[in-house]
Recover the amino acids of this structure.
């Protein structure tokens, strides 16, 4: 419960700043989050790439640490899509 309160306390000011943020800052934030998410996704799937398994879907064949990185990467990419979609609208 304290973790959720701390995370919510950190997230709410960011959400309130979206109302007054310029389109340029939203664009660069979305681009940065997307790039970071793609880099984390690459490092999460690196063990599969070393085994020459390029076309596997989902995090099932990954170990627990890499699986967490996989889901973190997807969360960052979805957040980037949200920000870039806001700019597009």
């Amino acid at each position: 419960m304290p973790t959720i309160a701390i995370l919510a306390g950190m997230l709410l000011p960011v959400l309130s700043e979206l109302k007054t943020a310029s389109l340029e800052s939203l664009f660069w934030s979305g681009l940065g989050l997307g790039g970071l998410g793609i880099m984390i996704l690459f490092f999460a799937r690196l063990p599969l790439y070393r085994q020459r398994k390029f076309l596997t879907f989902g995090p099932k064949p990954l170990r627990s640490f890499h699986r967490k990185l996989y889901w973190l990467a997807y969360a960052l990419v979805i957040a980037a899509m949200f920000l870039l979609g806001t700019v597009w609208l």
